[in-house]
């Protein structure tokens, strides 16, 4: 039942992120881009603020077990989401994002039945704007971080 709760929690988080746009990250895991739009765009990436007015958005995830990630709001094409599977933590990635966007990340354990700890943090231009953490099993381990650029 706990695994079902965790799966349901991840589905809800993924559904919330589907309406956002996304980018790609270096995960060490398998990455899949889902797009509901017809245009293509390339994900941002880099470690410093861009001179073209974009904001530096860094996501950090810590966990004592592998996690699945869903990213949104980090590319120009809204409607894209990026799923990164079986990521070894700690994990971090920095994106260059247009102002007035709402980037987000959701993280959940690969094995929802395994007891563990997980946390995420989102930084905009080096300042922490959101954190979340959970411990235990099942849906208590699904976390998400988001904020405005």
UniProtKB/TrEMBL annotation:
InterPro entries: MmpS_C. PROSITE patterns: PROKAR_LIPOPROTEIN. Transmembrane segments: none annotated. Residues 131-149 have a biased composition (Polar residues). This is MmpS family membrane protein. Gene3D superfamilies: MmpS1-5, C-terminal soluble domain (2.60.40.2880). Residues 19-58, 128-149 are annotated as: Disordered.
């Amino acid at each position: 039942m706990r695994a079902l709760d965790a799966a349901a929690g991840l589905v809800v988080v993924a559904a919330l992120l589907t309406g956002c746009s996304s980018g790609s990250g270096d995960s060490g895991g398998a990455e899949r881009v889902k797009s509901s739009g017809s245009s293509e765009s390339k994900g941002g990436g880099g470690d410093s603020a861009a001179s073209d007015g974009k904001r530096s958005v860094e996501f950090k995830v810590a966990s004592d077990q592998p996690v699945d990630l869903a990213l949104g709001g980090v590319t120009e094409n809204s409607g894209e989401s990026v799923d990164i599977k079986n990521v070894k933590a700690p994990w971090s990635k920095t994106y260059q994002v247009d102002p007035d966007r709402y980037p987000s990340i959701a993280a959940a354990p690969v094995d929802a039945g395994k007891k563990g700890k997980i946390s995420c943090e989102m930084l905009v231009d080096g300042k922490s704007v959101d954190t979340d953490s959970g411990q235990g099993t099942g849906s208590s381990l699904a976390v998400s971080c988001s904020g405005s650029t």
